[in-house]
Amino acid sequence: MDGRVFGPGPVLLGHRGMGRGSVDGLAENTLESFLAAAALGIDWVEVDVRRTSDDRLVVAHNPATPEGVFYADITGTEATGDGALDLGCLLEALPPGVGVDFDVKTSMEDAVRSRAETTMARLAGVARREAHRRPVLISSFDAGALDIARELAPRVPRALLTWVEFPIGQAVAMAGHLDVQVLAPHWGSLRPNEREPVELHRPLEYVVDTVHTSGREFLAWCPTVKFAQQLLDAGVDALCVNNVPNVLAQLRGELVTAVM
User: Fold this and answer.
1) What predicted TM-score, i.e. pTM, was given to this entire model?
2) How far is residue 161's CA from residue 185's CA, in Å, rounded to a whole number?
Protein backbone atom coordinates (compact mmCIF):
# COMPACT_ATOMS: atom_id res chain seq x y z
CA MET A 1 0.00 0.00 0.00
CA ASP A 2 1.08 3.57 -0.59
CA GLY A 3 0.14 4.87 2.85
CA ARG A 4 -3.53 4.96 1.98
CA VAL A 5 -6.14 3.37 4.21
CA PHE A 6 -7.97 1.54 1.43
CA GLY A 7 -5.17 0.97 -1.04
CA PRO A 8 -5.04 1.96 -4.71
CA GLY A 9 -8.64 1.26 -5.69
CA PRO A 10 -12.21 1.31 -4.33
CA VAL A 11 -13.03 -1.38 -1.78
CA LEU A 12 -16.21 -2.77 -0.25
CA LEU A 13 -16.94 -3.11 3.46
CA GLY A 14 -19.64 -5.50 4.65
CA HIS A 15 -21.95 -3.55 6.96
CA ARG A 16 -22.25 -5.57 10.19
CA GLY A 17 -21.00 -8.59 8.24
CA MET A 18 -23.27 -9.55 5.36
CA GLY A 19 -25.44 -6.48 5.88
CA ARG A 20 -27.98 -4.87 8.16
CA GLY A 21 -30.72 -7.11 9.53
CA SER A 22 -30.66 -10.61 8.09
CA VAL A 23 -29.01 -11.53 4.78
CA ASP A 24 -29.31 -15.07 3.42
CA GLY A 25 -30.62 -16.12 6.82
CA LEU A 26 -27.61 -14.73 8.68
CA ALA A 27 -28.27 -12.11 11.35
CA GLU A 28 -26.17 -8.96 11.47
CA ASN A 29 -23.18 -8.74 13.80
CA THR A 30 -22.92 -12.51 14.24
CA LEU A 31 -19.81 -14.58 13.68
CA GLU A 32 -21.57 -16.50 10.92
CA SER A 33 -22.44 -13.28 9.09
CA PHE A 34 -18.88 -11.93 9.23
CA LEU A 35 -17.33 -15.22 8.14
CA ALA A 36 -19.81 -15.58 5.28
CA ALA A 37 -18.92 -12.10 4.03
CA ALA A 38 -15.23 -12.99 4.19
CA ALA A 39 -15.85 -16.24 2.31
CA LEU A 40 -17.52 -14.26 -0.49
CA GLY A 41 -14.36 -12.17 -0.87
CA ILE A 42 -15.38 -8.92 0.83
CA ASP A 43 -12.43 -6.56 1.31
CA TRP A 44 -13.34 -5.26 4.79
CA VAL A 45 -16.05 -5.68 7.41
CA GLU A 46 -17.62 -2.95 9.52
CA VAL A 47 -17.89 -3.99 13.18
CA ASP A 48 -20.02 -2.18 15.79
CA VAL A 49 -18.20 -2.08 19.14
CA ARG A 50 -19.79 -1.63 22.57
CA ARG A 51 -18.57 -2.05 26.12
CA THR A 52 -20.08 -4.06 28.95
CA SER A 53 -20.09 -3.32 32.69
CA ASP A 54 -16.93 -5.39 33.23
CA ASP A 55 -15.04 -3.67 30.38
CA ARG A 56 -15.40 -6.39 27.76
CA LEU A 57 -15.95 -5.34 24.17
CA VAL A 58 -18.83 -6.91 22.27
CA VAL A 59 -20.21 -6.51 18.78
CA ALA A 60 -23.61 -4.83 18.92
CA HIS A 61 -25.19 -1.90 17.10
CA ASN A 62 -27.76 -0.69 19.62
CA PRO A 63 -26.92 0.28 23.22
CA ALA A 64 -29.40 -2.29 24.54
CA THR A 65 -30.69 -5.75 23.68
CA PRO A 66 -34.11 -6.15 22.01
CA GLU A 67 -35.48 -6.65 25.53
CA GLY A 68 -34.18 -3.24 26.61
CA VAL A 69 -31.23 -4.45 28.69
CA PHE A 70 -28.31 -2.04 28.30
CA TYR A 71 -24.92 -3.57 27.59
CA ALA A 72 -23.37 -1.03 29.94
CA ASP A 73 -25.39 -2.61 32.76
CA ILE A 74 -24.44 -6.27 32.22
CA THR A 75 -21.25 -8.31 32.14
CA GLY A 76 -19.60 -9.62 29.02
CA THR A 77 -20.67 -13.15 29.95
CA GLU A 78 -24.26 -12.00 30.27
CA ALA A 79 -24.05 -10.13 26.96
CA THR A 80 -22.62 -13.07 25.02
CA GLY A 81 -25.06 -15.40 26.73
CA ASP A 82 -27.82 -13.19 25.37
CA GLY A 83 -26.42 -13.46 21.85
CA ALA A 84 -23.86 -10.65 21.55
CA LEU A 85 -20.61 -11.55 19.81
CA ASP A 86 -17.37 -11.15 21.76
CA LEU A 87 -15.03 -8.88 19.78
CA GLY A 88 -11.97 -10.98 20.55
CA CYS A 89 -13.68 -14.12 19.26
CA LEU A 90 -14.51 -12.37 16.01
CA LEU A 91 -10.98 -11.14 15.47
CA GLU A 92 -9.52 -14.59 16.13
CA ALA A 93 -11.90 -16.23 13.65
CA LEU A 94 -11.76 -13.62 10.88
CA PRO A 95 -9.17 -14.31 8.15
CA PRO A 96 -6.23 -11.91 8.56
CA GLY A 97 -6.52 -10.58 5.02
CA VAL A 98 -9.91 -9.03 5.76
CA GLY A 99 -9.77 -5.42 6.95
CA VAL A 100 -11.74 -4.34 10.01
CA ASP A 101 -13.46 -1.00 10.48
CA PHE A 102 -14.16 -0.66 14.21
CA ASP A 103 -17.29 1.52 14.50
CA VAL A 104 -16.92 2.53 18.14
CA LYS A 105 -20.21 3.31 19.88
CA THR A 106 -19.56 5.64 22.79
CA SER A 107 -22.09 5.37 25.61
CA MET A 108 -23.66 7.85 27.98
CA GLU A 109 -21.51 6.38 30.76
CA ASP A 110 -18.34 7.55 28.98
CA ALA A 111 -19.25 11.09 30.09
CA VAL A 112 -18.25 10.28 33.68
CA ARG A 113 -15.07 8.37 32.84
CA SER A 114 -11.57 9.70 32.32
CA ARG A 115 -10.35 9.69 28.73
CA ALA A 116 -8.13 6.70 29.52
CA GLU A 117 -11.15 4.69 30.74
CA THR A 118 -13.62 5.36 27.92
CA THR A 119 -14.97 2.84 25.43
CA MET A 120 -12.63 4.25 22.79
CA ALA A 121 -9.67 3.87 25.12
CA ARG A 122 -10.56 0.21 25.63
CA LEU A 123 -10.73 -0.32 21.90
CA ALA A 124 -7.47 1.52 21.16
CA GLY A 125 -5.27 -1.27 22.51
CA VAL A 126 -7.18 -3.88 20.53
CA ALA A 127 -6.83 -1.83 17.35
CA ARG A 128 -3.09 -1.34 17.87
CA ARG A 129 -2.54 -5.08 18.21
CA GLU A 130 -4.84 -5.97 15.33
CA ALA A 131 -3.06 -3.53 13.01
CA HIS A 132 -0.05 -5.86 13.01
CA ARG A 133 -1.95 -8.54 11.11
CA ARG A 134 -4.65 -6.84 9.03
CA PRO A 135 -5.79 -3.43 7.74
CA VAL A 136 -7.74 -1.59 10.43
CA LEU A 137 -9.69 1.63 10.78
CA ILE A 138 -11.29 3.24 13.82
CA SER A 139 -14.48 5.13 13.02
CA SER A 140 -17.00 6.98 15.15
CA PHE A 141 -19.71 9.62 15.09
CA ASP A 142 -18.04 11.01 18.22
CA ALA A 143 -15.29 13.47 17.24
CA GLY A 144 -14.04 13.59 20.84
CA ALA A 145 -13.64 9.82 20.90
CA LEU A 146 -11.63 10.00 17.69
CA ASP A 147 -9.30 12.40 19.45
CA ILE A 148 -8.81 9.80 22.18
CA ALA A 149 -8.01 7.23 19.48
CA ARG A 150 -5.43 9.63 18.05
CA GLU A 151 -3.75 9.86 21.46
CA LEU A 152 -3.78 6.15 22.30
CA ALA A 153 -3.44 4.53 18.86
CA PRO A 154 -1.75 7.23 16.76
CA ARG A 155 -0.71 4.89 13.96
CA VAL A 156 -4.20 3.51 13.41
CA PRO A 157 -6.18 5.53 10.85
CA ARG A 158 -9.42 7.19 11.92
CA ALA A 159 -12.69 7.99 10.16
CA LEU A 160 -15.32 10.58 11.00
CA LEU A 161 -18.82 9.14 10.55
CA THR A 162 -21.70 11.54 9.94
CA TRP A 163 -25.36 10.74 10.40
CA VAL A 164 -28.23 10.27 7.95
CA GLU A 165 -28.65 13.36 5.75
CA PHE A 166 -26.09 15.32 7.78
CA PRO A 167 -25.17 18.44 5.75
CA ILE A 168 -22.32 17.32 3.52
CA GLY A 169 -20.58 20.70 3.39
CA GLN A 170 -20.31 20.72 7.16
CA ALA A 171 -19.13 17.10 7.17
CA VAL A 172 -16.32 17.81 4.69
CA ALA A 173 -15.19 20.87 6.63
CA MET A 174 -15.38 19.02 9.96
CA ALA A 175 -13.16 16.22 8.66
CA GLY A 176 -10.74 18.87 7.44
CA HIS A 177 -10.60 20.41 10.91
CA LEU A 178 -9.99 17.06 12.60
CA ASP A 179 -6.93 14.85 12.47
CA VAL A 180 -8.67 12.01 10.61
CA GLN A 181 -7.72 10.14 7.47
CA VAL A 182 -11.21 9.30 6.22
CA LEU A 183 -14.59 11.02 5.93
CA ALA A 184 -17.49 8.55 6.09
CA PRO A 185 -20.85 10.22 5.40
CA HIS A 186 -24.15 8.42 5.00
CA TRP A 187 -25.12 8.24 1.34
CA GLY A 188 -28.25 10.28 2.08
CA SER A 189 -26.03 13.31 2.60
CA LEU A 190 -24.78 13.02 -0.96
CA ARG A 191 -27.99 13.73 -2.83
CA PRO A 192 -30.78 16.27 -2.39
CA ASN A 193 -32.86 15.55 0.69
CA GLU A 194 -35.34 17.16 3.06
CA ARG A 195 -32.64 19.06 4.92
CA GLU A 196 -30.67 20.13 1.85
CA PRO A 197 -32.70 20.48 -1.35
CA VAL A 198 -31.08 20.43 -4.76
CA GLU A 199 -30.18 24.12 -4.80
CA LEU A 200 -27.98 23.63 -1.72
CA HIS A 201 -26.02 20.68 -3.11
CA ARG A 202 -22.65 20.77 -4.81
CA PRO A 203 -22.13 18.13 -7.54
CA LEU A 204 -21.05 14.77 -6.14
CA GLU A 205 -17.74 14.91 -8.02
CA TYR A 206 -17.00 18.29 -6.44
CA VAL A 207 -17.60 16.89 -2.94
CA VAL A 208 -15.40 13.85 -3.48
CA ASP A 209 -12.64 15.94 -5.07
CA THR A 210 -12.67 18.39 -2.16
CA VAL A 211 -12.24 15.52 0.31
CA HIS A 212 -9.35 14.15 -1.73
CA THR A 213 -7.74 17.57 -2.10
CA SER A 214 -7.86 17.93 1.68
CA GLY A 215 -5.72 14.78 1.90
CA ARG A 216 -8.47 12.44 3.06
CA GLU A 217 -10.16 9.37 1.70
CA PHE A 218 -13.88 9.01 1.11
CA LEU A 219 -16.03 6.19 2.49
CA ALA A 220 -19.79 6.31 1.87
CA TRP A 221 -22.01 4.07 3.94
CA CYS A 222 -25.14 2.10 3.03
CA PRO A 223 -25.90 3.37 -0.51
CA THR A 224 -28.37 1.64 -2.77
CA VAL A 225 -26.71 -0.35 -5.53
CA LYS A 226 -27.83 2.23 -8.09
CA PHE A 227 -26.32 5.11 -6.12
CA ALA A 228 -23.23 3.04 -5.35
CA GLN A 229 -22.48 3.11 -9.06
CA GLN A 230 -22.68 6.91 -9.07
CA LEU A 231 -20.32 7.01 -6.10
CA LEU A 232 -17.80 4.79 -7.85
CA ASP A 233 -18.02 6.97 -10.94
CA ALA A 234 -17.32 10.02 -8.75
CA GLY A 235 -14.14 8.40 -7.40
CA VAL A 236 -14.95 7.36 -3.84
CA ASP A 237 -12.40 5.14 -2.12
CA ALA A 238 -14.73 2.76 -0.30
CA LEU A 239 -18.36 1.76 0.14
CA CYS A 240 -19.87 0.20 3.27
CA VAL A 241 -22.72 -1.90 1.90
CA ASN A 242 -25.72 -3.96 2.89
CA ASN A 243 -26.60 -7.29 1.25
CA VAL A 244 -23.04 -8.22 0.38
CA PRO A 245 -23.93 -11.04 -2.08
CA ASN A 246 -26.16 -8.76 -4.14
CA VAL A 247 -23.67 -5.89 -4.18
CA LEU A 248 -20.75 -8.13 -5.12
CA ALA A 249 -22.74 -9.67 -7.94
CA GLN A 250 -23.68 -6.29 -9.37
CA LEU A 251 -20.59 -4.18 -8.72
CA ARG A 252 -17.56 -6.46 -8.77
CA GLY A 253 -16.86 -5.83 -12.47
CA GLU A 254 -17.16 -2.10 -11.90
CA LEU A 255 -14.68 -2.28 -9.03
CA VAL A 256 -12.12 -4.05 -11.20
CA THR A 257 -12.58 -1.44 -13.94
CA ALA A 258 -12.16 1.38 -11.42
CA VAL A 259 -8.86 -0.09 -10.18
CA MET A 260 -7.54 -0.43 -13.75
Assistant:
1) 0.95
2) 6
